[in-house]
Amino acid sequence: MEQPQLKRDLKNRHVQLIAIGGTIGTGLFLGSGKAIALAGPSIIFAYLIVGTALFFVMRALGELLLSNAGYTSFTDFASEYIGPWAGYITGWTYWFCWIMTAMADIIAVGVYTQYWFDIPQWVPAIGCLVLLLTLNLLTVKLFGELEFWFALIKIITIVALIIIGLIMLFTGFQTSTGTVTVENLVAHGGLFPNGLYGFLMAFQMVVFAFVGVELVGVSAAETADPKKNIPSAINKIPIRILLFYVGALFVILCINPWHEMSASSSPFVQVFTLAGIPIAAGIINFVVLTSAASAGNSGLFSTSRMLFNLGSNKQASPSFAKLNKNSVPSNALVISAIVVSAGALLSKLMPENAFSVVTTISAICFIWVWSIILISHIIYKRKNRALHEASIFKAPFTPFVNYLVLAFFAFLLVVMFISEATRTALLLTPIWFIILMFIYKMKRKKPID
Fold first, then answer.
1. Where would I find the Amino acid permease/ SLC12A domain in this sequence (predicted)?
2. CA distances from residue 337 to 129, 188, 221, 302, 410 in whole angstroms, order as listed
3. What's the pLDDT band for 14 if we cut at 50, 70, 90?
4. How confident is residue 160, by pLDDT bands cut at 50, 70 and 90?
5. In degrees rounded to 5, what are phi and psi of residue 121?
6. 149, 122, 146, 155: which is closest to 298 by C-alpha?
7. Residue 407: how many CB atoms within 10 A of its CB?
8. What is the CA radius of gyration of the chain?
9. Which terminus of the chain, N or C, has less C-beta within 10 A?
10. Beta bridge partners of 10
11. 153, 206, 209, 272, 283 from 33: Cα distances, Å
12. What is the distance between the alpha carbons of residues 415 and 130, in angstroms, rounded to a whole number?
């Protein structure tokens, strides 16, 4: 019986914008406010450090995916180079990560809609989920189109912010908080106003802001020309980090001194308001609404493809590996959507602290996924040196940089343990891996039919 094949309908523009959408999320639009409150202007260095580390993760991912045309995701090479248990745990962990993220973002759609309409937040949340599910069931090209336009809205907003900010900077614009100047970066306690501790405490939020950067790898099996499009998308990540994160935050901190910003609201709203644009709040609300919908869309795509991969490898029910007439894993899509919708409805009853714990666990699990990619690449290079030498997309400075980034990830976990805000989540996370390992061992004794 022939293995079902996903359709390669994602064009270069889709892959490029999926890559951008993966590196720009609500973590930047909303979470950066909290990160700035913790680290002050040094937050720019935190984004640079995490962004650089994840660029090397993506280079390793790119080389591994292009080394074998049969790979549909990182679970395939994790199984081959580390062991079937690694593929199983990483696949289900990635599914869990995106389920949590999609839950948060679908709920956010409901919250943002209340800005304009006085309706229960679950109504637009479920409505958005049903719409995204319907469009994703039709064809993978529709997913690509949705992400293309969602990402375009984010890009236009950030570019507009940077242009307006630079005009304000060069003209010495006066706002209610003072003069727009580069001196605002150092005039209020220096670059590290809260010291090294405040700088380190911001890293968890910065890591969460980069969640989704690996989406290019999940879309590889449905990319029309992976040998051209994947390297192109990955190599542009540093430029995107410099422009969208570092550039935007530099402008924001020049316009508004860090201590004048609210940790609970979007720095983007505050800056557009200071620029004298009265509809700023409405504009940014629309942007974060589409950003949340984009993340929900990415969540549905990635969770369904991961279930498809697990089903194809007999690590989940084979029914998840079935494709509809449009070559879309419909069973996997519907199940993922049901789980997300249940979470969206239940989370309304969850206390705020519990919800924060869930999102932190998700960020920690993403560190696991990124680490597995690096470890797989180390083993791949050691076992297949000839394949590595023949690669058209060699990961640079390996294996040294792999070990360096792995050490950095371990350091991040230590920082999360030190922080009271993330310690509980860090201590709870091993339970997930223990459960998965137990289920995996049980499945080995009794294979899935």
1. 14-448
2. 7, 47, 21, 11, 33
3. low
4. confident
5. -65, -25
6. 146
7. 10
8. 22
9. N
10. 223
11. 20, 11, 12, 14, 17
12. 39
State the Cα–Cα distance between residues 255 and 277, nearest whole angstrom. 14
Quote the CA–CA distance of 147 and 16 in Å, as a whole number.
10
At 440, which amino acid appears? Y
Amino acid occupying residue 147:
E
* Residues 291/150, Cβ–Cβ less than 8 Å: yes
Pick from 199, 233, 181: nearest CA to 40 = 199
User: Are the CB atoms for 259 and 193 separated by under 8 Å?
Assistant: yes
CA distance 49 to 45: 6
Query: Phi and psi for 223 in degrees, rounded to 5?
Result: -95, 130
Indicate if the alpha-carbon torsion angle 339, 203, 200, 185 is positive or negative. Answer: negative
Tokens of 283: 């504009």
Residue pLDDT, tens place only, 164-217: 888 988 988 888 878 888 998 988 888 999 999 999 988 888 887 787 777 776
Q: What angle do CA 315, 324, 72 make, to 5 degrees?
A: 45
Residue 309: name the closest of 84, 73, 8, 70 by CA: 73
Per-residue CA distances from 93 to 170, 222, 411 (Å): 47, 22, 21
- Residue at 291: amino acid letter: S
pLDDT tens digits, residue range 291-317? 888 878 888 888 888 888 888 878 888
